[in-house]
Amino acid sequence: MSDMIDRLRDAANAVGETLQPRDVPPLKLVVKRRPRRMLVMPIAVVVSAAAVASIVVATNVTVPENSVQEALSSQQPVFGAMPDTAGPRFFVETLDKGLGIRTADKGDATGSVPNPAADERFTQVQGASDNRTFYAVTSTPTCESGLYRLEVTQEGGVGSFSRLDLTLPKGTAVTSLAVSGDGGKLAYGLQSCQPSKQETRLVLADVATKSLRTWASPTFGDVYDVSMSSDARWIAFRSVPMAERESVAVVTDLPGQGADTGGDSGSVAAGQTSLFAPQVWVIDSSTKNNDLSKGRLVKLPTSFQKISGEVTGIRITPDGRSFVAAVGAAPTANTLSQPAPQQPKAADSSTTPSGLIEYSAQTGEPRRVVYQAPAGGSGGWDLVDADATGQRLLVRRNHEFGYVEGGVFHPLTESTATGIAW
Questions:
Q1: Per-residue pLDDT tens for 64-105?
Q2: What domain count does the chain have?
Q3: What are the start-end ranges of the E strands in 48-199?
Q4: Rounded to two decimals, what is the model's pTM?
Q5: What is the mean predicted confidence (pLDDT) over 145-151?
Q6: 258 and 345 housed in the same domain
């Protein structure tokens, strides 16, 4: 035992020789106190959390869950209203006399904005994810367009309304409009009003900085059905190159379904007009490419399970991973006045199954039937908008508007509106 004690003493002495006075911390006495029923948090966290809470209360917006953590770490203001999971409360429509605001559940009118001038009327409208910020397009007989911003109050009234200070080239018209999730960016197509100038442009505008990013092509037709992902990275649109406007190959059956053509692409029908061409162009705004024709072309099969027909409306989902398209008989209100030569007569919508199909945004492969409409009625369905979650899809058939959620159609209102959004 004494040998062990001697070895321990020698080891302690050796360690003691290596220590300096500065290595020994001062003595701290622990004083026991009565426990208090309170939550102790670091002061920095309390102050930061209080700052974020004050931002949310002051601006009265809903922020994404991860934005709070980002604000705590970066100490930057939180911008961008996010979708309400309860669904949109209002929708805005473009009417002959101006913009109308209605409740999304019953279609009751809650507010309106008259046309800016007698010869300037609203033709298009789109909304941000908060269901309170809307942007509208006007047109004039002289082929000029204007962009306006509307803020809707919690009660559905007009909070503010103003024209955007964004320069639109003279002699061009806005053909289609899309809004980013936070309402900070707009994507729109531009078409020359002069037949001799056929250059088509797609523009991404930053509302705050007024900076413009433009993609152009002299070979494209009109850009329409513009939509974009919530973060504004992926911009989808439809357009047919000028050389193909009179006749476009249409894939009407998936491989292994329908007619056997001896190939992998299904049966092909000629004479499809550009308005219903089953193809989508996708632009990645994070790249440096400014050539509209070098976007990614995605072709969509127009027959899947029991649904077949023409593609009458396409939107990219908020995450940019999928398209949702209305497929079936063409809506009567949107049918071209002069069909292409030898165009087959459209099948009667009462016997042609129509509905909504989800496609892969990368390959165009159908993923599922979102909704199959019952037979009957006049004219087909058209997909006109989706809420910020991508789960509530706004559709129209002639003057009848409704939305699809969970595979079920819910009627909204009957309207002569040229545009509608929530």
A1: 433 333 332 333 322 344 455 578 999 999 999 999 999 998
A2: 2
A3: 90-95, 98-103, 109-114, 121-127, 133-139, 145-152, 158-163, 172-179, 185-192
A4: 0.70
A5: 96
A6: yes
